[in-house]
């Protein structure tokens, strides 16, 4: 009998025991890889958001204008998607979602210009430690947001803006308004960067501890200004809706009212199209809100729930308010209420509880109804498709409502702290009043940045190209005068 | 020959067409029009923008008949188109100078 036999058998036994043990101990510095479920989910969410814009928003808006301008709206929305997609991958993603050096509070840098460094292997953080999605998918998902936000604006001055001026304005607007606001609200270092830095602090002692603490502080500071304030915006109440809403109002006031506004009849030419658009918007919005969770888990399901009930409540609220106020429930009121609810629940979708979302929807439905009817008529401005009344007002209601409804005491999720117990998110202490003030700060900064920025950029486009068509051209219809086409050849 | 122009309520078109066919009429021209007489319009509201809509949809029927047939044609239209409510419409009779059937070249009463 050879003396190596027992030692070989011993080695085999040790290996049989040790290997499973070793793989069971999580490696401290193992790089997370994307989960196929999360990846598939985000793929679908991205596509749903694109559907919201084309054809959802295009038809929603198109049906509300006169026949002679239908095509111009379809064209504007579709062209914006095409143009902003390219801008996004060239420099938009980099400016919004990288660290920007000196001005990192407000804007990122150009490190990922032309998507440099982004490959099929690189990943993007989610809101859970150790969970990532392919970076390309994150780029694509955020790209759909960058596309829909400027597309929302065009409704405010529909039927009276020149196509080339609009495209120039939009290119400038996404650059100087959208990318900075997206960066300020959403850019952060990610849960794993925070966890790693926090673990190093815990592991260090003496002089090394101070250095580790400074390193942690640097990671925490590597975020947008509004993010660092602690403002909550799950899917874009400020970044998308208030942003676009105020830009729309500025444009509507600057360009002026439509020829014949207030004297001539300009009813929607097809509420059928508007309803189709609104329905596509609701369905697609599940991608918008749930997808903003960046992974397929219970929070994504919560966002779906909120997107369902807040919308339903708001639709009913507007319909009932109109029924009582004007005598008849209208389809336009019903779908407008639904959109108002969707807008309001957007920032709250991953934070609020469903019952809170119902209340949010009811409030948004009624207030936006008042804003789009009594308030608009009283102030006399021509916001053709109620971009301000629904997106800005609804967005403000949602942003402030989020501060209240995220409270665990009201069924909300609370806010996660990634530092106190590195490796997992822990629900921190929640003070409603403090959070509401933070939300208001975020709203005010967004309004000021977008309002002033839009004003300047509209002026630039007006001087360089000319925003408004000649009166005769406006009378004839933008479809013919801007695009040489008819929407309908009946 | 006389041209009979009848403005009627749209849902009455089929009834009037049947009545005229029973009389032996070979053809007619129909147009969709808008108009009002004593029948008032209604109000439409779109998100706070109120529109008073005065024009109502109507249908215009034009038939050309030999002068001898005018009275019985007008009677048939009245009987078929009448509902008794405001907005039933009106009939106008005017004179036609000359008629030609394009395919054959027949004229006047032979072309009707």
How does this model look, in words?
The complex is a heterodimer of chains A (490) and B (112). Chain A is 67% helix and 2% strand. Chain A is mainly α and 490 residues long. In chain A, the strands form two sheets. Chain A has a two-stranded antiparallel sheet with strand order 1-2. In chain A, strands 3-4 form a two-stranded antiparallel sheet. In chain A, a hairpin with a 6-residue loop joins β1 and β2. In chain B, β3 and β4 form a beta hairpin. Chain B is of the alpha+beta class. Chain B has one domain: Alpha-Beta Plaits (2-Layer Sandwich), CATH 3.30.70.120. The interface between A and B is medium-sized, with 16 and 8 residues.
Unreliable stretches of chain A: 24-28
SS content category of chain B: alpha+beta
Termini separation of chain B comes to 9 Å
Average pLDDT taken over every residue of chain A: 94
Poorly predicted spans of chain B = none
């Amino acid at each position: 009998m050879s003396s190596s036999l027992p030692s070989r058998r011993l080695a085999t036994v040790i290996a049989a025991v040790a290997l499973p043990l070793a793989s069971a101990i999580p490696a401290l510095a193992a790089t997370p890889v994307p989960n196929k479920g999360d990846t598939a989910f985000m793929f679908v969410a991205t596509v749903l958001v694109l559907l919201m814009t084309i054809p959802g928003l295009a038809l929603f808006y198109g049906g509300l204008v006169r026949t002679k301008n239908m095509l111009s709206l379809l064209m504007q929305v579709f062209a914006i998607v095409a143009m902003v997609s390219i801008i996004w991958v060239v420099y938009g993603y980099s400016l919004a979602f990288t660290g920007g050096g000196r001005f990192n509070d407000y804007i990122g840098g150009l490190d990922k210009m032309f998507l440099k460094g982004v490959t099929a292997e690189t990943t993007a953080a989610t809101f859970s430690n150790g969970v990532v999605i392919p970076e390309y998918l994150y780029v694509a998902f955020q790209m759909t947001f960058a596309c829909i936000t400027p597309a929302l604006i065009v409704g405010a001055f529909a039927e009276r803006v020149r196509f080339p001026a609009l495209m120039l304005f939009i290119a400038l607007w996404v650059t100087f308004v959208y990318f900075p606001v997206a960066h300020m609200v959403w850019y952060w270092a990610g849960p794993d960067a925070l966890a790693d830095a926090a673990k190093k602090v815990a592991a260090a002692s003496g002089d090394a501890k101070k250095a580790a603490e400074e390193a942690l502080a640097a990671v925490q500071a590597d975020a947008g200004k509004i993010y660092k304030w602690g403002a909550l915006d799950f899917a874009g109440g400020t970044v998308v809706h208030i942003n676009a809403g105020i830009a729309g109002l500025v444009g509507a006031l600057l360009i002026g009212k439509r020829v014949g506004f207030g004297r001539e009849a300009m009813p929607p030419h097809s509420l059928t199209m508007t309803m189709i658009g609104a329905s596509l918007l609701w369905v697609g919005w599940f991608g918008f809100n749930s997808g903003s969770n960046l992974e397929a888990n219970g929070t994504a399901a919560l966002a779906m729930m909120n997107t369902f009930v807040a919308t339903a409540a708001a639709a009913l609220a507007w319909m009932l308010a109109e029924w009582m106020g004007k005598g008849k429930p209208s389809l336009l009121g019903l779908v407008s209420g639904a959109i108002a609810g969707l807008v309001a629940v957007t920032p709250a979708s991953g934070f609020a509880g469903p019952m809170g979302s119902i209340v949010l929807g009811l409030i948004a439905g009624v207030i936006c109804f008042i804003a789009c009817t009594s308030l608009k008529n009283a102030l006399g401005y021509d916001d053709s498709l109620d971009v301000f009344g629904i997106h800005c007002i609804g967005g403000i209601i949602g942003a402030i409502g989020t501060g209240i409804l995220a409270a665990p005491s009201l069924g909300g999720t609370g806010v996660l702290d990634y530092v106190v117990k590195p490796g997992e998110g822990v629900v921190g202490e929640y003070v409603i009043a403090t959070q509401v003030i933070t939300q208001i700060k975020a709203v005010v900064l967004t309004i000021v940045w977008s309002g002033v920025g839009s004003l300047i950029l509209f002026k630039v486009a007006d001087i360089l190209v000319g925003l408004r068509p000649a009166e005769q051209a406006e009378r004839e219809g933008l479809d013919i005068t801007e695009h040489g086409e008819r929407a309908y050849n009946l | 020959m006389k041209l009979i122009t009848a403005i009627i309520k749209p849902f009455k078109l089929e009834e009037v067409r049947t009545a005229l066919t029973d009389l032996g009429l070979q053809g007619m021209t129909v147009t969709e029009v808008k108009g009002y007489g004593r029948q008032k319009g209604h109000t439409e509201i779109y998100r706070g923008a109120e529109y008073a809509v005065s024009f109502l949809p109507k249908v215009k029927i034009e038939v050309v008949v030999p002068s001898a047939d005018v009275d019985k044609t007008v009677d048939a239209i009245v009987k078929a188109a009448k509902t008794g409510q405001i907005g039933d419409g009106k009939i106008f009779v005017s004179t036609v100078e000359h008629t030609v059937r394009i395919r054959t070249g027949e004229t006047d009463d032979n072309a009707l």
